[in-house]
Design brief:
Elements (H helix, E strand, L loop, with lengths): L19 E6 L4 H17 L3 E6 L5 H12 L4 E9 L5 H18 L4 E8 L2 H8 L6 H19 L28
Parallel strand pairs: 1-2, 1-3, 3-4
Length: about 180
C-alpha cells in the first residue's frame, strides 16, 4: 500500500521574485476540491507566492482553462485540481486519460503545471488524498508547479533558437521575393 511507504520530497524552491500561480479547480466534489485548494494555497504562500483561483465545470475543462491563461494571462505557473471517482461507465477512463494527456501537452509547450487531479476508485480514497493533514495532493501539485517555475527561471536566459537561423555574417533573401538571393 502506497500510503505506508516513505518517499523523498524535494526541498521547497526559493525565489528572488515571488511566483504568481493560477489554481484551476473543478469543484464537482466540493468538499474534496476545497481540501485540495487549501493545500495548494498553503504551499504557494509558504514559498512566498501569490495565487488566483478559478473554477471550471469539470476535469476535462481544466486543461482548456490553463491553456487559455497560458496564452492570454501573466502567470508563472498553474495548479490543476479536481477529482474523478470511478463510476459504472468508461467515462471515468476518458476523463482521466484526456485531462492528464492535455495537461502533459501544455507542459511540453512550456506551461509549468502541477497536476493534482485525483483519479480514484472511491470517495474514501479521494478524502485521504485531498486532506491537508493526510496525503495533501493539492499541496503536492502546487509544489510541483513551483519546482517547474524555478527550473524555468533557472533556464530562462538560455533560450536556443530552433530551426534555420540567419548567420550573423551573411544576409539571406527569399528567392522569388524580388530581393534576390544570397550570393
Amino acid at each position: 500500500m502506497a500510503g505506508s511507504e516513505t518517499h523523498y520530497t524535494l526541498p521547497r524552491p526559493r525565489f528572488d521574485q515571488p511566483p504568481r500561480l493560477l489554481i484551476v479547480v473543478a469543484p464537482y466534489y466540493k468538499d474534496i476540491a476545497d481540501a485540495l485548494v487549501a493545500g495548494a494555497r498553503a504551499e504557494i504562500e509558504a514559498a512566498g507566492g501569490s495565487h488566483e483561483v478559478i473554477e471550471v465545470p469539470g476535469a476535462l475543462e481544466i486543461p482548456t482553462a490553463i491553456g487559455q491563461a497560458f496564452r492570454m494571462a501573466h502567470f508563472d505557473g498553474f495548479v490543476a485540481l479536481g477529482c474523478v471517482i470511478r463510476g459504472e461507465t468508461t467515462h471515468y477512463d476518458t476523463v482521466c486519460n484526456d485531462s492528464s494527456r492535455a495537461i502533459t501537452l501544455l507542459g511540453l509547450q512550456g506551461a509549468c503545471i502541477g497536476n493534482g487531479i485525483l483519479t480514484v476508485e472511491n470517495r474514501a480514497q479521494a478524502e485521504v488524498r485531498a486532506e491537508v493533514a493526510g496525503q495533501n495532493k493539492g499541496g503536492g501539485a502546487a509544489a510541483a508547479a513551483l519546482h517547474l517555475i524555478a527550473l524555468a527561471r533557472h533556464w530562462g536566459g538560455q533560450r536556443r533558437p530552433v530551426g534555420f537561423n540567419k548567420p550573423e555574417s551573411e544576409e539571406f533573401r527569399i528567392a522569388g521575393s524580388g530581393k534576390g538571393t544570397r550570393g
